[in-house]
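tool=predict chain=A
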Amino acid sequence: MTLFDGDHFTFAGGRHLGTGGPSIPYELYKDAALTQVWGDSGYGGLYLSGTPLTATGTGLSVAHTVFGKLLPGGSSSQSSINDTIVVTLIF
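tool=predict ok
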């Protein structure tokens, strides 16, 4: 399972929350310790700093929690900021 780079991705700064003007950089992780960046590297995606989550299906629903962290170096005067991440299942 891969996570796309988001609507506001920049090669210089990665994922960002916010549209136009100042934005806030952030990262998505596979683990609560925030050590395993969740991305799409190896599957032709653009987000090369993160790797997919590998799991074996059982035929039942399985929840996978995505952990996030705001990174230093950003700011926004917007009252609401967002991004859209596409999840891709590879089987």
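The beta strands are 2-3, 16-17, 24-29, 67-70, 87-88. The two ends are 9 Å apart (CA to CA).
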